[in-house]
Amino acid sequence: MSENCTNELEKRLKERYDELKWLYCELYGDDGQGFDYLCGLMKKYYAERGESLKAIDRVREKNPDWYRSNGIVGMMLYVDNFAGNLKGVIKKIDYFTESGVNYIHFMPLLESPKEHSDGGYAVADFRKVQPELGTMDDLRKLTDLCHKRGISCCLDFVMNHTSDEHAWAKAAREGDVQAKSRYFFFDGWDIPSEYERTVPQVFPTTAPGNFTQLPNGDIVMTTFYPYQWDLNYANPMVFNDMTENLLYLANAGIDVIRLDAVPYIWKELGTPCRNLPQVHNIVRMMRIICETVCPSVLLLGEVVMEPSKVVPYFGTTEKPECHMLYNVTTMASTWNTVATRDVRLLTRQTDKLAELPKNYVFLNYLRCHDDIGWGLDYDWLKEHYMEQIPHKRYLNDYFIGKYPGSVSRGELYNEDQILQDARLCGTTASLCGIEAAVYDEDESALNLAVDADIMLHAYMFTQSGIPVIYSGDEVGQLNDYRYHADINKKFDSRYLHRGKFNWKLAEKRKDPASYQGRIFAALRKLEEIRGANEVFVAQAEFSPVETGSANVLGIFRRYGKQNLLALFNFCEEERSISLGQKLTYTDLMTGEKHREDTVVLPPYGFIWALES
Ligand code: GLC
Asked: Which of 260, 326, 423 to mutate for ligand 1's pocket (most ligand atoms within 8 Å of CB)?
């Protein structure tokens, strides 16, 4: 290690040392040993970090706002679905450039048992790529190539649990006391039953309960699937070793670490075991550790909960935690609006987001690999005569195409007969009606569904933060029902929207008359306009606009000298919106200038009107 480098690390560590030590000792006491070990890890991983990554660290350290720019567009994909394996992704890398994306979330790709993988979220080895997908070297090559093209790479860090095939779990099953202390082991049901009184269920139908009894009678905590054993972060060895795994991935060139299921990582008897204060302590430590060893790396928290639970994961200005969080309530409220054609809830959600500090960066999305959970503002809905249970039933009936007139084609997920609850699966295109229209060979229905799909994307691109396209959505990919015939997948309807990327159909993106071509071209255009206008930066001011129509969502954005009025028609009829006065603006999609006091939006139409 050259002296300069040592100084760089020393300097970063010195600025953060006291706080890190304080946080560590608060959780683990101050015998010094564990903390010294952690500091040793930071030094080791800094020393081993490649020069090209260190160069990125320095650039981003100087420009810490880099990820707030309007030039970032993301895509999330499964390596096997997209291109078979990592080498295949390298061969297809031009597709990213063609699609205009420069941030790729590679879905879990570390070693995970085939039959018990939860889509890769049951990790058996945090330092080994799933053999069918390639090797760590392939991953390093891919991230390096991406960096050379200006593409950032995101990877899941599945930190709440390991697979029951992980070396620690195997040793624990053999009775190794130290290994057992990394998990939550019990020799009877007394304490587990006590936990069950206060801990809700994540997968009530597909994996009921929060504990699993092993063949030898031992009981182990398994919040998610029975083969995903919860790690015990009260054990400093777990924290240290998992931190080492995180740094290992950062040194493989991962720019964005997605902290999977982070609210769940600390357990305390008598509590819901979610969002406990110690979780924030741990996330803050991870932030400090990354800022010290690999400051270009961002933390993306997966907190799929109501807004009051999400926002604390940003931390405070002095003590930041995650760099980015999912805009999950907006996503669910968007689909609520698709089903109801009533924009009031989304308007209220926009208003709530507008009140948040502008330094918060959200990751915006329409669909992802998971189901849509109906986490809506039920207090507000109740005031407007919509009770939770019947409203959810309506949404689900609508999106599975059961409601009369619905063109959506989705499937329920984790239907809970007792709580009368269910979540929902399906691709954007199928939920918008493209699947039904293609099946019926109904061209006018197809055009309408494509317009709805494009309008929803335009709305996503209008939100502050980083828009992330779910791979396949850029070409209107439909649901894939083949999972019904796969024994390892058929009980998990999330596989409905985790189909193989259909390269043959995707070829049609080059044909402007096809629906694939229409969607692809529209998304490219939206991305370009977004990248060329500073009014789309994450820090812009924004507010909802009252449009006078229950079906049309209005958003006003302002940044620098730019003012943008964005209108989105969520219904299948034309809507005419009065602007109150004559407004001179450029329609950014057509480039045409207008001076009007009324805007006519076609069915599922939208406008980005830049005032001039
Ligand atoms: C996250 C993932 C989900 C997975 C769960 C358990 O919520 O998004 O797909 O099932 O974590 O790891």
From this structure: 260
